[in-house]
Design a protein that fits this description.
Number of strands: 6
Radius of gyration: 17 Å
Strand order of the largest sheet: 2-1-3-4
Largest sheet: 4 strands, antiparallel
Order of helices and strands: EEHEEHEHHHEH
Strand content: 15-25%
Length: about 170
Amino acid sequence: MIEITNLTFKYGFGKEIYSSFNLKLEKGKIYGILGKNGCGKTTLLNILSTLLPGYNGSVCIDSIEAKERKSEYLQKIYFLPEIILDNRHSINDLMTNGSVYKSWNEEKFLQLTKRDGLDLKTKLKSLSKGQRKRAYFNQAIAANPEIMILDEVTEGVDILSQKDIIEDIK
């Protein structure tokens, strides 16, 4: 379970994003975060994924605090950000790197990669934005984490592939 208690966060320039925010999310459910641009959706996902530790309050998964960045916490999550900055690797590298997850399923990764018409030798930088997103999403599915944190996972992805992503999430 994800439990956020009295989360308070503001950026260095003083804009407060959260003030005494509380939230409980149960295991086995799919949640979406809706809101206007700039309201803090991505900020919350970055806090959950341990990328923004400078908050007050408590952000826990199964009573493990995010700020502590313990391996037990990090093994529970896979975070796919909206913008992927590092695209110098190949799809095969995604498969190799995925093995850091205890529940990694290489066969599933290969199956999804084949379904999407992606070649293991292909460099991510040579793919379209949607194809790159699919390759990383396939890594997320094959990692089989307890919690997938997906930020704008269908952005740049064609409508048919969006349907596949939604089915894969289910």
